[in-house]
Design brief:
Alpha-Beta Plaits; Molybdenum Cofactor Biosythetic Enzyme, Chain A; four-stranded antiparallel beta sheet; 11 helices; elongated
Length: 315
């Protein structure tokens, strides 16, 4: 069974079909509810919904999901019935199998109820028609790699007493995405040094994304949020809340992180924890939806600066 514990919870949707083929007179009997066994469409609808809810009991490697809605509809033609199954869930994995199983079970129920009057029945074209809610739905590219810096804030790592694992974990997690790590640097827990480095990377180098690791806890030397707050133009509290929410599903210690997130110019700055596990999980919490924000930020900033340049030329 695939481990989906690292995935984010999101609204999932899938639509599938199965095609029931029979003689025209059989279709008419089904349409009018005149089969010997009763109303086939109503029974098939119930069977399909029940199948959707029990998919993980039927398909061995299918994850149990909390289905929030399932429905079966029928498109009746002269010699076939197109069975349509739709399923929704708010979960970590998709509901494609639930929709496919529901469509199949509904079609099989039609078969069972009509086989007494028609030996020519066949089932075909069982397939997925649509799915939404996976990671790919929340990923938007900038059109080029996002120019990024990873700053490790730690007295002990800076002094060479400890090896940096968290910063390297962040870089590793980003490796599958369109990201260009322009700078990777270790700094001591000094507010003025970190503040100056954030300014340099945002203003002089012009990076789009800066991720810091460390200095977000309760220790007397933990000053990363304060140094970050010193240079921000705008706060982005939802990002830090999302990171902490994702982490709190795995450890209650996530609530102890004081990390901030915000914008300076056209640069997004996000504070991540200093532990390797915390840093790794925090990056996973940000991906891939953070690229949508970066696209808006960079695009909006470019348009803003272009308008400002135009105004200056007009004057």
């Amino acid at each position: 069974m695939k481990d989906v514990s690292e995935k984010r919870i999101s609204l999932r949707y899938a639509k599938a079909q199965a095609v029931f083929k029979a003689m025209p007179k059989t279709i008419e009997m089904i349409r009018g509810g005149g089969l010997p066994k009763g109303d086939a469409l109503q029974v098939a609808k119930i069977a399909g919904i029940q199948a959707a809810k029990n998919t993980s009991s039927i398909i061995p490697y299918c994850h149990p999901v909390g289905i929030t809605w399932a429905d079966i509809s029928f498109d009746l033609g002269e010699e076939e019935i197109r069975v349509l199954a739709e399923v929704k869930a708010i979960d970590r994995t998709g509901v494609e199998m639930e929709a496919l199983t529901a469509a199949s079970a509904a079609a099989l129920t039609l078969y069972d109820m009509a086989k007494q009057v028609d030996e020519s029945i066949s089932l075909s074209d069982i397939r997925l028609l649509e799915k939404r809610g996976g990671e790919e739905d929340f990923f938007e590219e900038l059109g080029r790699p996002v120019r990024t810096a990873v700053l490790v804030v730690s007295d002990s790592v800076y002094a060479g007493e400890k090896e940096d694992r968290a910063g390297k974990a962040i870089i590793e997690e980003l490796s599958g995405y369109p990201v260009d790590i322009v700078e990777y640097k270790v700094l001591p827990d000094e507010r003025s040094l970190l503040r100056d480095e954030l300014r340099r990377l945002a203003d002089e180098i012009g990076l789009e994304l800066i991720l810091t690791s460390g200095g977000t806890g309760f220790g007397p030397r933990d000053i990363t949020p304060e140094a970050t707050d010193d240079i921000l133009d705008k706060d982005a509290p939802g990002i830090s809340e999302a990171v902490r929410a994702y982490g709190s599903e795995r450890t209650p210690f996530s609530a102890l992180s004081r990390g901030k997130a915000g914008i300076r110019g056209k640069t997004l700055i996000v504070n991540l924890p200093g532990s390797t596990r915390g840093a790794r999980e925090s990056v996973r919490a940000l991906l891939p939806w953070i690229f949508h924000g970066l696209k808006i930020l960079v695009g909006a900033s470019s348009e803003y600066h272009a308008r400002e340049d135009e105004r200056r030329r007009a004057r």
